[in-house]
Design brief:
Helix content is about 25%, strand content about 35%. It is an alpha+beta fold and about 240 residues long. The strands form 2 sheets. Strands 1, 2, 3, 4, 5, 6, 7 and 8 form an 8-stranded mixed beta sheet that branches. Strands 12-11-10-9-13 form a 5-stranded antiparallel beta sheet. A hairpin with a 6-residue loop joins strand 9 and strand 10.
Length: about 240
């Protein structure tokens, strides 16, 4: 790692990582916490982490000039790193566009990427991830927008969450080497959840629609097919829980 900081309890690892990035944190600087009380996901949704039960960490990356043209891919970089680490445990995870990791069709992790801009230039990218490791880390069903699970629930055994973190970071290093290449998008699509399936999708500010998931484009947009055959590419929105 470029540098790392561990804290028993924090509000948000992303907030701390962004502050560190603004004061010179080097590439691959890591902030990791045992518990997180004010974590957040996409759309300012809360992500709480109980002590001993989950992974909560944020990574500061300093994009190269080539990488700054691929900012939407940093979310996939983190998700694919976790998917690779879970594969080492014999678990087949998928990436639910745009920023969730699924196990057995349920959310096991979420990614939040935030960029630090200085004079119209990206100085740093902060990648935050929360992973449900133990069953006790899964929020109550009444608070969820999408069904959730934990790594140990699906595996049927306890794991070392710090080993999972190490394997995730190692895989992220490998994927970063191809971040600007078509191979990264190919890996994203190979692990894309619900690809080829009909789903309920809600674009930001629009009513839910039934569409078929076709795949992710090089710019990170999700390509959808409508029931009348028309195609659409979206940069934001989410696949909804079946009701």
């Amino acid at each position: 790692m470029g540098a790392w900081r561990y804290l028993p309890v924090v509000g948000s690892t992303n907030d701390l990582a962004r502050e560190w990035a603004q004061t010179g944190a080097p590439d691959w600087s890591l902030v990791v916490a045992d518990a997180q009380t004010a974590g957040r996901g996409r759309g300012e949704r809360r992500w709480l982490t109980e002590p001993g039960g989950a992974l909560a960490f944020s990574l500061v990356l300093r994009p190269t000039p080539v990488e700054t043209g691929c900012l939407p891919r940093f979310t996939a970089l983190a998700a694919l790193g976790l998917i690779s680490a879970l594969s080492g445990l014999g678990l087949a995870a998928q990436l639910k566009w745009p920023n969730d990791v699924l196990l057995a069709g349920r959310k096991v992790a979420g990614v939040l990427v935030e960029a630090d801009w200085q004079s119209a230039q990206v100085e740093a990218v902060v990648i935050g991830m929360g992973v449900n490791v133990s069953p006790g880390s899964v929020p109550h069903a009444n608070t969820l927008r999408y069904p959730a699970t934990a790594v140990e629930t699906v595996l049927g055994a306890a794991i070392d969450r710090w080993a999972l973190l190490a394997e995730t970071l190692a895989a992220m290093r490998d994927y970063r080497a191809i971040l600007a290449l078509d191979a990264l998008v190919d890996a994203w699509n190979a692990h894309l959840a619900m690809r080829g399936e009909w789903v309920r999708f809600q674009a930001d500010g629009a009513a839910p629609q039934v569409v078929r998931v076709l795949g992710v484009k090089p710019d990170g947009q999700l390509e959808l097919a409508h029931q009348d055959g028309t195609l659409q590419q979206v940069l934001s929105g989410e696949i909804l829980m079946e009701r």
